[in-house]
Design goal:
This protein is mainly α and 271 residues long. Helices cover 58% and strands 4% of the residues. It contains 13 helices and three strands; from the N terminus they run αααααααββααααβαα. It has helices at residues 2-16, 24-35, 40-49, 55-58, 61-65, 99-111, 117-133, 162-174, 179-186, 191-198, 203-220, 229-258, 266-269; strands at 152-155, 158-161, 226-227. The chain has a three-stranded mixed beta sheet. Helix 2 crosses helix 7 (117-133), helix 3 (40-49) crosses helix 12 (229-258) and helix 8 crosses helix 12. It is globular, with a radius of gyration of 19 Å. Bound molecules: adenine and zinc ion (2 copies). The site of adenine has 11 residues, from loops.
Length: 271
């Protein structure tokens, strides 16, 4: 009995900090929205690099890969921590990297004419994933509670942590949709809205915007919060918005990298 309990609490600790990104739904939806806004020239290069697969196929790949020895170096690339008494600029930098610098380094590989095809394929898989993660509010969370992994809440009466709520429980409660249905329902914007979303077009710009949402989440979800229907209703529009922003910005980034004729974002804005 005692052994069983030790095993159970060990498993709980493991699962409590294993949250590496939006859950599958967030990454698949982000990648699928992006796919729908790639120019034909970009789509051809992207699918070529991915051996004919679509961005969705690899959207969640890094969350598994970072747990393997081969890609363990990317463990801290999924997030950037900013504590309550710090600002985006003053937060200390991890030597192992963070999501902002990782996106820059992987984009640089995609733009490097000396990089090999294998290097570019890996960088592309990373970028597809990380542009999703940088829109997950708890991926800009405090270092002191591991991005909300140690902020304990009740989710419809069950023990949960704030990070995992935002990775997957909340999106899954928001809508019982497949990623294609998510895209059909939320990828509906006016040209003006697309201009506004794409006006922030740097990793630090995306991260700062997400961090503002994160601060709001912390304020409204203190330790011990009992999360129920009202919380889902309040935050569902934010989840939708973050999936959509990630998708459109990923498409814009990939078009800028791969399509020499992609100018002024017109292909996305006027679609
Ligand atoms: N996932 C694992 N550790 C994390 C952290 N410190 N911040 C955000 N997400 C994480
Ligand atoms: Zn991740
Ligand atoms: Zn996560």
């Amino acid at each position: 009995m005692l052994n069983k309990n030790i095993l159970a609490s060990g498993l709980m600790i493991l699962s409590a900090t294993s949250a590496f990104g939006w859950g599958q739904k967030g990454h698949d939806t982000t990648a699928y929205i992006a796919e729908n806004h790639l120019t034909p020239a970009t789509k051809e290069i992207v699918e070529g690099l991915l051996d004919g697969k679509s961005p969705v196929y690899y959207a969640n790949w890094l969350d598994n890969a970072s747990h393997t020895p081969e890609y363990a170096y990317s463990k801290t690339w999924h997030y950037k921590n900013i504590d309550g008494d710090q600002t985006f600029e003053s937060a200390p930098l991890l030597e192992s990297g963070d999501i902002v610098r990782a996106i820059y380094s992987q984009v640089a590989i995609l733009q490097d004419s000396n990089a090999t095809r294998d290097q570019k394929q890996l960088a592309l898989k990373m970028v597809i994933h990380l542009v999703g993660d940088i829109h997950q509010p708890m991926h800009l969370g405090h270092a002191s509670d591991l991005g909300g992994n140690r902020c304990m809440v009740k989710y419809f009466g069950k023990d949960a942590n704030l990070h995992s709520v935002w990775d997957s429980s909340l999106p899954e409660s928001a809508h019982k949709w497949s990623y294609t249905e998510w895209q059909q329902q939320i990828d509906r914007t006016t040209p003006e809205q697309r201009v506004e979303i794409l006006s922030i077009n740097t990793p630090e710009g995306w991260a700062s915007e997400t961090y503002e949402i994160c601060k709001d989440v912390y304020t409204k979800t203190p330790d011990g919060t009992k999360i129920s229907y009202d919380y889902i209703a309040e935050w569902t529009p934010v989840v939708e918005q973050q999936f959509l922003k990630g998708g459109l910005r990923l498409a814009d980034l990939l078009n800028s990298i791969f399509d020499v004729e992609y100018q002024g974002r017109n292909a996305i804005v006027n679609k």
